[in-house]
Amino acid sequence: MNADSRKEGARKDAVEEANGQRILSLWFPYLATERILRQRLGKSWRSRPSDHPRPSHPPLVISHRQGNAQRISALDERAEALHLKRDMGIADARAMHPSIDIVEADPEADRRLLEGLADWCDRYTPLVALDSIDGLFLDVTGCTHLFGGERAMLDEILARFFHQGFDVRAGLAGTPGAAWAAARFCGDRIVVSGEEEALLAPLPLAALRITPETRTSLESVGLRTAAAVMAAPRAPLARRFGALLLQRLDQALGRLDEAISPRLPVAPLSVERHLAEPVTLTEEIERLVGMLATTLKTDLERRGEGARTLALLLFRVDGAVSRIALGTSRPMREPLLIRKLFHERLAALEQHIDAGYGFDLVRLSVLAVAAFDTQQTDLTGEAVDDGADIALFADRIRARLGEGAVLQPVPVESHLPERAVAIVPFSEAPRRTTPPKKPDRMQAPMTIFPPERPIRLFRAPEPIDVPATEMPEGPPLHFRWRRALYRVTRAEGPERIAAEWWREAPGDPAASTRDYFRIEDADGRRYWLYRQGLYGGVSQIPPRWFMHGVFA
Q1: Is the CB of residue 191 less than 8 Å from the CB of residue 179?
Q2: What would the pLDDT profile of 245-255 be if each residue is shown by its tens digit?
Q3: Residue 93, SS3?
Q4: Is the distance from CB of 57 to CB of 74 less than 8 angstroms?
Q5: Which are the contacts of 379, defined by CB distance < 8 A and separation ≥ 6?
Q6: Cβ atoms < 10 Å from Cβ of 33
Q7: Sheet holding 321-332, edge to edge
Q8: pLDDT by residue (tens digit) across 20-65?
Q9: How many CB atoms lie within 10 A of CB 171?
Q10: Predicted TM-score (pTM) above 0.90
Q11: How far apart are the C-alpha atoms of 245 and 3, rounded to whole Å?
Q12: Helix (H) or strand (E) holding 409
């Protein structure tokens, strides 16, 4: 195809897309067997040059248990040439052809392979959906002109999949139903909008995506093609065969809308770079990230937003896709900072990213955004320190070591010590949106200070043995903790903390009142312990003592 014909095809496709959506359906009829053959013979086993013929292999059959019998769930072209069929018993197939190779079905592996193919198709459109266990739907509306038109894009997809070892059938139409029928019953077909009825008319009933039971019922009354169903009165069809039959027919003809659900959320902003020569080095990828981030900065500034979650997609030449995501503590759009974060992330994943023969497409997407506040400066023109350096440091640590590497305590509305603070990831900690208030000079100074708290609290209070106290409500004279006896020389307290009765169940020991004491032993070590319960109270359970923390 020369340049003029490509331009003319792209122009016609642009006019076609302006009239409505365009859906591409891909069908992999031998997906399960191709997964096995690619493992045994290599990914390029279908595209061997003429002087290197395909390696010979016996007919391959995939077996699965159905009821009390083993049956064929999938088979390759050689097994089909032997007139073997799906759902045929394995015993009958082996009796007919003893040389066949039988492999147990692995639906999870097939599903992972199909999801990997869907990831690879993201290079054409972000709207990719799974279609059953052997197909994909791609909403390519407005995308085909980027690849030279519909025919050029379709030829490229089929050629790339062929070199990856897949036999794929494609159909492109204005509705998912028509595209699905074109892929499975026409092989390689582009249907112009408005010609869906002409496409479906000669096809069998299976092209309407109806259940086998409905197809059998329709054939029993002489309706064997889609044209016969379209010519029949609609009301009797709905009464006898259900509303789903007419719904599928109207969806395929474009009378009813049918949306496809993308398997991944669509990024609000995304930029990419197609490479004439694939890249393999991490330094080259980081340089491309900086270039893409510069392009993203312009779009983010126009929207007044910053990125909170970024994703880097690396499309390998042989079809594998690496997806690298990271989050930021605050909105970010500076290319240099984004490059630093991905430098840390790529360094952490260097052993897990296989470049193979290189990446020919690199995409940087913004998955989540937030309003970007302009940085405040003082009278000298220098930026006010609002913790940006600490946030960047935390983001780089998290990018290299994971989300749980940097945690931050945040206050919680509770007067119980173990509930008053929660440890959350640094990116989820609330940020101050207004500067702290300056103290009022006219206000009287605070004379009552809050009681001292230990630096370290135990995850759960540990029980201690207190044999004696100065008085029923007083501190202990000595106590035993972790099999060691400690003699008390100084004590301060009690500090009484009542339980949160609205949270605790009645009768629960945790609902008892606590009396806290700051204790110092003979060696100068200081502890924070409490007595749970009161002497002479309503409860018949005697008070218990616990160690809650230690001072520095």
Answers
A1: yes
A2: 999 999 999 99
A3: helix
A4: no
A5: none
A6: 22
A7: 269-279, 359-371, 305-316, 321-332
A8: 789 999 999 999 999 999 999 888 888 876 666 666 789 999 999 9
A9: 26
A10: no
A11: 45
A12: strand 407-411
